[in-house]
């Protein structure tokens, strides 16, 4: 930073010299200076963009390369289809975590999607203007709460509550994690769905009412289908967040490598398993590689989702 | 105007990024005389930081950078040459359950760390034998009524594999018996802080923790009728404690040697180390 401004000063000083000598250079000096600023700014912008790309690709490359090393000692079949994760005894079955991640995400979306669509409908169609202007910033604020706060509240408030309500002994497990995640993704999904619903042209509604439809019919048969692609976009964005979420999940899921056959059985997902174990594994061990492979899987899943988002966005624009 | 603001932002971000990448690189490039890099156990970190502060006051030319990740990172960093000293909660020059010994490394005892088996306040049991502890943590006994408590399922809270506390508890309290690894009422936590919260807030829970972390919201159990107190550790009745170690590659030299000697000195052991609630190694003779 210092270096750049120093060069700029030197440049300016030398220009002053030229302009004094030729005694016509005032406009020329200014133009040269502007050109220099523009050029260097452009260069910096390009450098930043290249920098980001390099980082992205080196992360992908590093994770992939390290992860693949797992298969020197473990067969892909074992990693993807075995549920025995006992690294101490050389058993590296990752199915528990992969299943856990998908089950948790599915459960989260199952709870979050209807809730957030109802919130969005309420926000976009039913609220009086003053309440809407108040509620939207509140939802935006909710997005910014750090996930560790949600996790901590989940551990200290939600889990004891679940224990009392359901009578289970522990309370940790898929349901607790799904509820915490739902609260986390709810504002994201409902705000974007809200925008999508608001963007549906008023003439659709007018036409529907003119045909004699009720408000319920108009919303569920006309407005929501028209806003479908926007809501799917919101859902995938929320899903991506739910899949990658670590801190909140690790505090309420129980972290036990066993297949979750009930909602209250302590289990583990890809993210929580990585964060639990990465600090304690020997470098250059199959165990370490297996954790990298899990990270790579997460990366791939989120990349696929981002591609999906782009696809849906484009389709939405066309339609 | 808007562009200018953006430019400043871009510059600042760049500068920050450069700084952020430069710092770890600088500290990792060790092996210069007068520079000590310490990594490893988070349980020993407060002790290391305090010692480093005092040592730097006496030797202003020595630079010490200490950080912590987990016990096993200590000897690993030493083996890779990233760190000069690896702090670890067990003697990494010998085999322990789950971890092979690190060849060519020398262990230096620096502190005594007592551990306690703890239960939630609602548990009626005050004392467990070694056999009962083994049965509970291996999953054979699942109900408090089988060990003299009320009729309630036992919730076992364990530290994740690789934790120094776990290694010590397994060797000293369970005589090396394996832990359970699955079960409906079994969970693992990431750190001593999480263990504290889990045992405090989960009824019928049992876990284990460094003695210094025991709070009034949980109950530390007697093991074989001996209460976990500092006095009982020193007089040899309470067996569940371990040494904290500094591992070095071969015998240490120069600044590293001086620093380890300082940590082991009477002055530090009986002063700051005691204040941090560790027990001096000299007390164990």
From TrEMBL, chain A:
Intracellular or extracellular location(s): Cell membrane
Mode of membrane association: Multi-pass membrane protein
GO biological process, one term: phosphate ion transport
Keywords, ordered alphabetically: Cell membrane, Membrane, Phosphate transport, Transmembrane, Transmembrane helix, Transport
Every ABC transmembrane type-1 domain range: 98-309
CC annotations in GO: plasma membrane
Top-level taxonomic group: Bacteria
Pfam family, one: BPD_transp_1
Primary location recorded for the protein, binned into one broad class: membrane
Molecular function as annotated in GO: phosphate transmembrane transporter activity
Transmembrane segment boundaries: 40-63, 95-126, 138-162, 174-193, 231-253, 289-312
Coiled coil regions in record: none
InterPro entries, per database record: MetI-like (IPR000515), MetI-like_sf (IPR035906), Phosphate_PstC (IPR011864), Phosphate_Transport_Permease (IPR051124)
Function: Part of the binding-protein-dependent transport system for phosphate; probably responsible for the translocation of the substrate across the membrane.
PANTHER family linked to this entry: ABC TRANSPORTER PERMEASE PROTEIN YQGH-RELATED, PHOSPHATE TRANSPORT SYSTEM PERMEASE PROTEIN PST
Protein family: Belongs to the binding-protein-dependent transport system permease family. CysTW subfamily.
Protein name, as recorded: Phosphate transport system permease protein
Organism for this UniProt entry: Paenibacillus phyllosphaerae
Automatic annotation (TrEMBL), chain B:
Major location (coarse): membrane
Signal peptide: 1-28
Membrane topology according to the record: Lipid-anchor
Gene Ontology terms, MF aspect: phosphate ion binding
Keyword Cell membrane: yes
GO cellular component: plasma membrane
UniProt KW keywords: Cell membrane, Lipoprotein, Membrane, Palmitate, Phosphate transport, Signal, Transport
Alphabetized CDD domains for the sequence: PBP2_phosphate_like_1 (cd13653)
InterPro entries, per the entry: PBP_domain, Phos-bd, Phosphate_ABC_transporter
One biological process term in Gene Ontology: phosphate ion transport
Residue ranges annotated for the PBP domain, each copy included: 27-267
Subunit structure: The complex is composed of two ATP-binding proteins (PstB), two transmembrane proteins (PstC and PstA) and a solute-binding protein (PstS).
Known function: Involved in the system for phosphate transport across the cytoplasmic membrane.
Family, similarity comment: Belongs to the PstS family.
Protein name: Phosphate-binding protein
Organism: Paenibacillus phyllosphaerae
Lineage: Bacteria, Bacillati, Bacillota, Bacilli, Bacillales
